[in-house]
Structure formats: structure tokens, C-alpha cells
């Protein structure tokens, strides 16, 4: 007799109902209701997914602010896969809240909105962190109105898809989560591409990899089996990464990393790992890497390539690119190697009357190139010809000599640099001999030096002069021994540690200036006196007595003076020392015998055109050093002819740099008495806009016009009132092509009208009302030298015409 099986329906239905009840209970527990919030703080709470694999909340980034993010919470690395405020870290105490009216908003501690989820429909009932790594905002019926999977940052996870016009944007660096220099994008035509980006404009530049699916692709898919592919409209697929990966055994993520490479990673789940601890758990990249060689695959006409300008890219371990500086160059920011490199020397002048060819040498680098920096090439040449051609060309920053006899000249800045065995040929990097810390190691140079020494020695030994030299040497040694064994005199003036700055007493400087008797000049915040240092054989100095200074302590004052003292450039006035006693704070500079540029330009007879050109160049180079090349960036804030001093050889020296931080804020905003005219003050001073290095560029533009025209920026006593404001008059003459009216009877300048026009155009660019339109000082120098073309400038502004 067969046993009758019970009807299976009731038990199955019971099991199904039980599962639904459990599921509903768990989901309710994980849902975050309206009014829920999280606060940015160390050790703060987070919203976890049901399995605990993912969490949503705040993560502190280094020693800085907090990132509102999603991360893998079961692994020690807490790897971040999504971020809301990647470009704007928030401080401790910031809060993200699902408001009672269904909005999802991040505010800082003062209540300022930092980020908001873009929800186009009403009806949000709860938020939930899902086990897929997707954060959702849903209705009561679990319809998703917003989800993080639709707005990926730099990472995609299994089950995540990207549609047309969707993209990933790499972070800036390993520890900086803000938008970086590369993006992964499915274009509107269905082609998946990797592109370089202009970080400032937040736009794409050129493509350096393509899936070649234009016209067919419509979606990027990352499935649970570990495959990443472009799905086509007709159902076919273009595989990007095919790896058989078990979701039960491994976590997965695919990321466009800060170096521009798209990589697929896996991480073992702890529950399925043996007890062996011989190899620590870690994220492991799977092949392929896309592209296979980021250094050689990126080459763009606009932009720097894989690394910054003047650097070169070389693959290191795990195909990670390394950004390196060639000899003669150093990182602009050692903490941010992607910014590129700067020259450690003054670049070659294009002044034909002062040829500098012999002041430079070429350093050889094999298998290195900077494509897209070419401006000239010659075929069928020898390497010696190529070397001489570059050394004799002031525009040539480097040359590439190929084995087939082709010589390529490279302009500054160098871009798309790479070092790779496939490059072939050799790079010849131009470096100044005296200013660079790197010296030529060429064997021929050493051989030549040895030959010269032998020749000199032979001549000396063959004449009686040799014996006279021996007698002088013996006398010198006797004096040296006597001086060496004398009791040493204690240094009269203390020296600031690590620097050659003397710390004077107030009485010592009072005596040096004969009771502050001979005044050299004065302004709203300081008076300058001539003095002589008794301890330095009566060396003349300029002693600046600060009248209005920020009420700061000794340490702060010394820190600011130290920053000024660390500057060292031939176009800056050298700081010699300081005095800091109570309310007496003085700064001691070297004395400039030729006075100020104001006296030179406006003192009587018109200086010759060549001297004015050199003064303009030198002033520009000094400002470039302050803005980009010294250890601490310095904004001068008061560039004008009175602050440009001249030494015996008429070399311009910028003075008063670095003093802005020592002065009261209201003083730095009233450094000129001419507020209603086009003086030297940039318009942003009057608009409470952020003050950047562009305020100095504006002032330099006005100064350049004064140098060209040998007249002040504002002159009320003129016959034609249209000429009262120099900048207005110059622009009118430029538009009407009557620049000769600016030069008076200056025959030297009249014979160099192309340069005059170029300088006028540069000055007009410098005095643009919008600071973003003004060039950097580096660009100014390149335009002045003729290395960069000067575009036609617009009307500088109407701002100052109406005030």
C-alpha cells in the first residue's frame, strides 16, 4: 500500500510566507526612515547593508575633512567606492539628513548646503544601503527615485551598469578624492573611451583608448561573474575584462584610478579563506590593464599627458606610472608630483645683443621623448649639428636626436614626456651651467679641463713666475697659521638658524642710520632710511622701519621674515637682517645705488629702449620667482615703479615683497592713493574678491605700459584729457593702430615697433578686469621673449571708467 503524500501546497506556502516575513523584517530593520541623519565625527555611526558588506556614512580623509561615502566595511582597508562631496570635504559636525519632506541633504555645521540628491519626483519614504553597494531612496512601494549606481564616481561594482553619456572620473591622487585628470565615458554614439581632462574647466580633452563600439554600444555592464563589457543594440557584446570570479569567494570592484588606468580588482572574502596567514589579504588587480602602458598611450596636443609639464612618465612596479623630473628640473610641488616640474635655472635669453649660447650645456637622456612639443625639425643631420642648433636657439628647451639623423627641437613647456625602450634615440636637455645645481659630466669637457691645467702648469714651470708664486703661497700660509691660532672673536650679530639673516638690536640700527637721519622714502606703512653697517666695513644698507604691523608674537614675525629671507633671485632686493624689540620692528636690505624705477623713468631724460626692455624682463622674472619658484608662494600686492629698485648695472630688483602679511589688512587694501583711476590696484581689491597672484599680474601690466611710454599711469596735467589715464590712452592707440603716438621722439623704440606692439598687447592682457583672463607671469615671459604668440586682446574693462 502506497503511502499518500500530503498536499505540498500548504507547507510550501507556509515556507514562502515565512521567508517573506523574515525578509520584510530584515529590510525594515535596515531601512532609514524620514528624519534619519548621520553626523561627521571620528567613530561616528553609519548605515550598513543587510549583510554588512557595505556601509554609508562619513570617512575622514587623512588629517583633513570628511567625505560622505560608501565603502567596503568587512575589510580593513574600508575601500571607498562612491562619494557625494568628493570636491568639497566637510568639517567635523557636518550632517547628512533624510528630511521629513523626503529631501536628502548634506549641510556643514553652519547649515550651509554642500550637496543634495537630485530627486525629480516626490514620495521618498526611506533610504536603504543595499548589499550590492547601491544606496537608494525609495517610495513606500520600493520604487527607487534616486540611487548612487546612477551617479558613479570613479568605481563600478557588479550589477552596476553605465548608459550612454555616463562616466567615471578618476580621483586626483591616491589620497585626494576630488575630480582628477582622466575619465571613462560612454559617448552618445556608443563608443566607450578613456580621455584626459582639463581639471580647471571640468571638460574632456583627448582620447587615449577606445572600445571601437561607435554606432552600436549602448551600455557598459559589470556582471556578477566578473565580466565587464559593452553591450550592443543588436545583442552582441565587446568584452573589456573577462575574468571568472566567484561572488561567494571574492569582493569585486573596477576603478578608473588616479593614474588614468582602468583596473579590475578582487579581494578574498574572509569566510572562505584558509587559516594560512603567509600572504596578507589585499586587493589584487586582474588583467588586462587598460591601457597597457599609460605613459606611451597618452599623447595630446593640448595638455601635459600622463604626467605634468616638464616631467616624464616611466612605468614602475605593477605597471604604475612614475612621474619624474629630468636633470636641471625639480617638482613644482614635491607632495603633488602630477603637477609637473620647473626649471632650476633662468632660461636662455633671446636678446641677440647678449648671446648666451656658451652659458648652457645639453644633458643626454636615452629612450626619452616629449612628443607634441615640436616646433622645428631637420633631417639628415649629425648629433653635433643637432646639439649646436639647440644651444644656439633661445626657443629650444630640448632636442631629440633620432638614429636616422632627424633632429627635433622642443619648445617650453615640455609635454607628454615618456621614457620607454620603444622610444629609441636620445633627448638632449638644455641646462644653464652656472645657475643649475647639475654640472655637465661630459668626458670631453673633463678632458679639455685637464688639458688646460697641464698647459698652464707647463708655462708656469718654464718661467721665473713660478718661483714668485711659490713665495706668495708661503707668505699666505704663514698669515693663515697666525690667524687660525688667534682667539676667535664672538660674532657680534646673532644669525637666524639655517639662514644668513642677522638679528640686530634696535640701538645698533639706530646707530647705523645715525639716528634715522637720512630718509630714502616713506609710505603709509613704513619709512626707509639709509645706513652703514660698521661691522661690515661701512657697507651701505637700507633700513625699513615698519609703522603699522599686525599685533603678532615674536615667532610669527620671525616666521614671516624667514619666508622673505629664503628668497634668492637676482631680480629681488636681498634681505640682510631684521630687528624685533617690542614695538620696534625693522628690516634691513641691501642698498640700491641707482634708486627706484620711478626716478629712472620719470626723472627727466627718457632712458634708452634697450635698458627699459631689460628692466621689464628682469621685473617679470622676479615676479615669476615669487609666484612659482620660491619655497613659499609670495603675492607682492604692491607692484609699482617705487618698489622696483635699480643696482649699479641697472638690474631691476623688486623690493617690499612678502610684507603684505606683516601689515594690517586695511593697509594692504590702500597701498595706492589713486583709487578712482587706473592705478596699480587690480579691480578685485574693490570688489572683495579673493586676492591671488593675478593682482600682481595686473600691476605688472600697468608698470609695463609706464616702461613703454616713460610716463605715469595717471597724469592730470595733460592737454588732452583722453590721455590722463595711461591704460585707456594706450588701448585707444592700439585700436586705432597709432602706437607711435605713445613713444614721443623715441627713435630706438620707433625702430622696434613689432616688439612695442607685442609688449602693448601683453600689457593689455595683464590688465583685464576678469582675473581669469590675465596670463600667469610664466606666460607673460614666454610672450615677451616671443616663444608664445600673443593673441589679440579684448578691451581690458569698463570697470575703472565708471568709478
Structure summarized in a few sentences:
By secondary structure, the protein is of the alpha+beta class.
From the spread of the alpha carbons, the general shape counts as globular
What structural class do you assign from the helix and strand content?
alpha+beta
User: Which value, in Å, is the CA radius of gyration?
Assistant: 34 Å
CATH class of the largest domain: Mainly Alpha
Number of β-strand runs: 43
Question: How many structural domains can be distinguished in the coordinates?
Answer: 5
Largest sheet report: 6 strands, mixed
What would the CATH topology of the largest domain be? Transferase(Phosphotransferase), domain 1
Strand line-up across the major sheet: 36-40-41-39-38-37
Can you give the helix content as a percent range?
Answer: 10-25%
In DSSP terms (H or I, runs of 4 or more residues), the helix count works out at 16
Q: What percent strand? A: 25-35%
The CATH homologous superfamily of the largest domain = Transferase(Phosphotransferase) domain 1
The appropriate CATH architecture of the largest domain is: Orthogonal Bundle
C-alpha end-to-end distance: 111 Å
**What is the overall pLDDT average?**
82
Poorly predicted spans = 1-29, 272-278, 435-467, 479-499, 663-678, 799-803
Oligomer: single chain
Amino acid at each position: 500500500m502506497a503511502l499518500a503524500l500530503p498536499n505540498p501546497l500548504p507547507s510550501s506556502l507556509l515556507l514562502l510566507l515565512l521567508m517573506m516575513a523574515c525578509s520584510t523584517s530584515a529590510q525594515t530593520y535596515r531601512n532609514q526612515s524620514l528624519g534619519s541623519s548621520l553626523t561627521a565625527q571620528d567613530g561616528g555611526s553609519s548605515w550598513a547593508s543587510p549583510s554588512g558588506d557595505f556601509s554609508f556614512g562619513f570617512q575622514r580623509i587623512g588629517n583633513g575633512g570628511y567625505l560622505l561615502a560608501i565603502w567596503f566595511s568587512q575589510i580593513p582597508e574600508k575601500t571607498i567606492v562612491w562619494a557625494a562631496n568628493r570636491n568639497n570635504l566637510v568639517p567635523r559636525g557636518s550632517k547628512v539628513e533624510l528630511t521629513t519632506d523626503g529631501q536628502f541633504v548634506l549641510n556643514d555645521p553652519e547649515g550651509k548646503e554642500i550637496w543634495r540628491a537630485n530627486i525629480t519626483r516626490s514620495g521618498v519614504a526611506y533610504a536603504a544601503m543595499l548589499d550590492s553597494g547601491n544606496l537608494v531612496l525609495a517610495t513606500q512601494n520600493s520604487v527607487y527615485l534616486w540611487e548612487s549606481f546612477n551617479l558613479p564616481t570613479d568605481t563600478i561594482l557588479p550589477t552596476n551598469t553605465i548608459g550612454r553619456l555616463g562616466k567615471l572620473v578618476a580621483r586626483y591622487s591616491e589620497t585626494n578624492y576630488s575630480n582628477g585628470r582622466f575619465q571613462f565615458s560612454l559617448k552618445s554614439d556608443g563608443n566607450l573611451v578613456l580621455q584626459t581632462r582639463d581639471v580647471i574647466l571640468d571638460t574632456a580633452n583627448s582620447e587615449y583608448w577606445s572600445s571601437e563600439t561607435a554606432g552600436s554600444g549602448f551600455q557598459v555592464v559589470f556582471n556578477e561573474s566578473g565580466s565587464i563589457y559593452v553591450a550592443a543594440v543588436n545583442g552582441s557584446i565587446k568584452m573589456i575584462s573577462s575574468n571568472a570570479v566567484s561572488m561567494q569567494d571574492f569582493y569585486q570592484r573596477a576603478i578608473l584610478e588616479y593614474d588614468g588606468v582602468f583596473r579590475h580588482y578582487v579581494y578574498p572574502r574572509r569566510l572562505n579563506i584558509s587559516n594560512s596567514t603567509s600572504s596578507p589579504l589585499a586587493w589584487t588587480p586582474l588583467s588586462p590593464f587598460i591601457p597597457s602602458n599609460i605613459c606611451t598611450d597618452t599623447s595630446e596636443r593640448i595638455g601635459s599627458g600622463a604626467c605634468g609639464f616638464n616631467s616624464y612618465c616611466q612605468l614602475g612596479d605593477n605597471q604604475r606610472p612614475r612621474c619624474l623630473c629630468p636633470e636641471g628640473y625639480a617638482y613644482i610641488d614635491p607632495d603633488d608630483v602630477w603637477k609637473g616640474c620647473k626649471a632650476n635655472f633662468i632660461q636662455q635669453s633671446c636678446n641677440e645683443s647678449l648671446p648666451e649660447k656658451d652659458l648652457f650645456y645639453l644633458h643626454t637622456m636615452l629612450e626619452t621623448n616629449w612628443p607634441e612639443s615640436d616646433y622645428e625639425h631637420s633631417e639628415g643631420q649629425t648629433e653635433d649639428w643637432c646639439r649646436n642648433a639647440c644651444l644656439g636657439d633661445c626657443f629650444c628647451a630640448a632636442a631629440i636626436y633620432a638614429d636616422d639623423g632627424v633632429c627635433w627641437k622642443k619648445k617650453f613647456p615640455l609635454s607628454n614626456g615618456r621614457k620607454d625602450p620603444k622610444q629609441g634615440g636620445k633627448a638632449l636637455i638644455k641646462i644653464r651651467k652656472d645657475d643649475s645645481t647639475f654640472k655637465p659630466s661630459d668626458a670631453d669637457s673633463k678632458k679639455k679641463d685637464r688639458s688646460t691645467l697641464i698647459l698652464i702648469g707647463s708655462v708656469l714651470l718654464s718661467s721665473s713666475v713660478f718661483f714668485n708664486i711659490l713665495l706668495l703661497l708661503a707668505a699666505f700660509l704663514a698669515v693663515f697659521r697666525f690667524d687660525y691660532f688667534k682667539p676667535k672673536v664672538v660674532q657680534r650679530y646673532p644669525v637666524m638658524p639655517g639662514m644668513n639673516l642677522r638679528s640686530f638690536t634696535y640701538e645698533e640700527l639706530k646707530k647705523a642710520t645715525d639716528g634715522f637721519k637720512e630718509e630714502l622714502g616713506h609710505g603709509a606703512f613704513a619709512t626707509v632710511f639709509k645706513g652703514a653697517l660698521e661691522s661690515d666695513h661701512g657697507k651701505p644698507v637700507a633700513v625699513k622701519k615698519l609703522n603699522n604691523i599686525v599685533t603678532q608674537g615674536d615667532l610669527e614675525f620671525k616666521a614671516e621674515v624667514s619666508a622673505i629671507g629664503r628668497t634668492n633671485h637676482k631680480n629681488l632686493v636681498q634681505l640682510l637682517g631684521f630687528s624685533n624689540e617690542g614695538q620696534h620692528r625693522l628690516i634691513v636690505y641691501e642698498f640700491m645705488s641707482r634708486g627706484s624705477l620711478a626716478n629712472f623713468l620719470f626723472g627727466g631724460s627718457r632712458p634708452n629702449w634697450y635698458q627699459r626692455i631689460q628692466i621689464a624682463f628682469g621685473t617679470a622674472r622676479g615676479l615669476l620667482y615669487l609666484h612659482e619658484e620660491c619655497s613659499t608662494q609670495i603675492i607682492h600686492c604692491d607692484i609699482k615703479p617705487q618698489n622696483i629698485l635699480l643696482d649699479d648695472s641697472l638690474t631691476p630688483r623688486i623690493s617690499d615683497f612678502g610684507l603684505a602679511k606683516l601689515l594690517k589688512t586695511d593697509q594692504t587694501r590702500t597701498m595706492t592713493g589713486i583709487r578712482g583711476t587706473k592705478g596699480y590696484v587690480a579691480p578685485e581689491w574693490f570688489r572683495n574678491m579673493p586676492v591671488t597672484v593675478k593682482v600682481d599680474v595686473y600691476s605688472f601690466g600697468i608698470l609695463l605700459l609706464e616702461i613703454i611710454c616713460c610716463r605715469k599711469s595717471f597724469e592730470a596735467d595733460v592737454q588732452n584729457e583722453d590721455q590722463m589715464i595711461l591704460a585707456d590712452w594706450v588701448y585707444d592707440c592700439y585700436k586705432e593702430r597709432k602706437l607711435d603716438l605713445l613713444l614721443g621722439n623715441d627713435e630706438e623704440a620707433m625702430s622696434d615697433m613689432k616688439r612695442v606692439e607685442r609688449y602693448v598687447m601683453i600689457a593689455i592682457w595683464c590688465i583685464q578686469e576678469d582675473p581669469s583672463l590675465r596670463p600667469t607671469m610664466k606666460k607673460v615671459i614666454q610672450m615677451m621673449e616671443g616663444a608664445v604668440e600673443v593673441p589679440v586682446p579684448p578691451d581690458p574693462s569698463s570697470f575703472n571708467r565708471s568709478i
